[in-house]
Amino acid sequence: MKKEMPLTLPQLKTIWGKDWDFFVEKIVPNCLCHTCNEVVTIVDFKTTVNDLNDVILRGKCAVCSDPVNRYTETGENEEYVKRIKKVLKGMKK
Ligand SMILES: [Zn+2]
Questions:
Q1: Residues sharing a CB contact under 8 Å with residue 51, sequence separation 6 or more, in sequence order
Q2: Is residue 15 one of the residues assigned to a domain?
Q3: Protein residues with C-beta less than 5 angstroms from the ion ligand 1
Q4: What is the C-alpha separation between 11 and 19, in angstroms, rounded?
Q5: Distance from C-alpha of 48 to C-alpha of 53, rounded to nearest angstrom
Q6: Does the residue 92 lie in any domain?
Q7: 34 domain residue, yes or no
Q8: Measured in Å, how far apart are the chain's first and last C-alpha atoms?
Q9: How many domains is the chain built from?
Q10: Angle (deg, nearest 10), helices 78-92 and 9-16
């Protein structure tokens, strides 16, 4: 079973660090909605991180409100992984 940990907004900001603008400008508005069959903005999303250190967004399509997911491959970036581990460690305290 895949394990996922929920992330708060401050934790998410910590993970993306100086790439936060990239996250807001390039990830959030670039989610595929299967209902609209278009690239849309994800709204009302919650984020989790899985056991591969990939951050996953789950929310709604800004156009039709159907569920939209966005998978980010943060687990492939050493800097992100370092910060994810730090954030997760802090949660266990
Ligand atoms: Zn849609």
A1: 2, 3, 4
A2: yes
A3: 33, 35-36, 61, 63-64
A4: 13
A5: 9
A6: no
A7: yes
A8: 24
A9: 1
A10: 150
How much distance in Å is there from the Cα of 78 to the middle of ligand 1?
33
| Per-residue pLDDT tens listing for the chain (93 residues) | 578 999 999 999 999 999 999 999 999 999 999 999 999 999 999 999 999 999 999 999 999 999 999 999 999 999 999 999 999 998 765
93 found inside a domain? no
pTM: 0.91
**Ligand 1 centroid – CA 68 distance (Å):** 8
Single-letter code of the amino acid located at 25: E
Question: Which residue segment(s) compose the domain that 73 sits in?
Answer: 4-87
* Separation CA 31–CA 92 (nearest Å): 31
